[in-house]
Amino acid sequence: MIIKAPIDLELTQISGQTSQPPWKKINDSYSDLVCIDGNPSIFNVKQSGENIDFSYTGNVSENQAISKVSEIYDLDFDLNKFYRYLDSYDELKDMSKFCSGLRLFQAKDPFECIISSICSANNSIKRWTKSIDDVKMKWGSNFNNYYSFPDTKIFNDIFLDEDEELSKTGSVENNNLKSCGVGYRAPYMRKASEMFTLEMNLSDISKMSYDEAFETILKVPGVGPKVADCILLYGFGFRQAFPSDVWIKRIVSYLYFDGKDIKVEKVREFGMDEFGDYAGYVQLYMFHYARKSGLMERLK
Question: Which of 52, 89, 174, 222 could connect to 179 by a Cys-Cys bridge, CB 3.0–4.6 Å?
Answer without folding.
Answer: 174
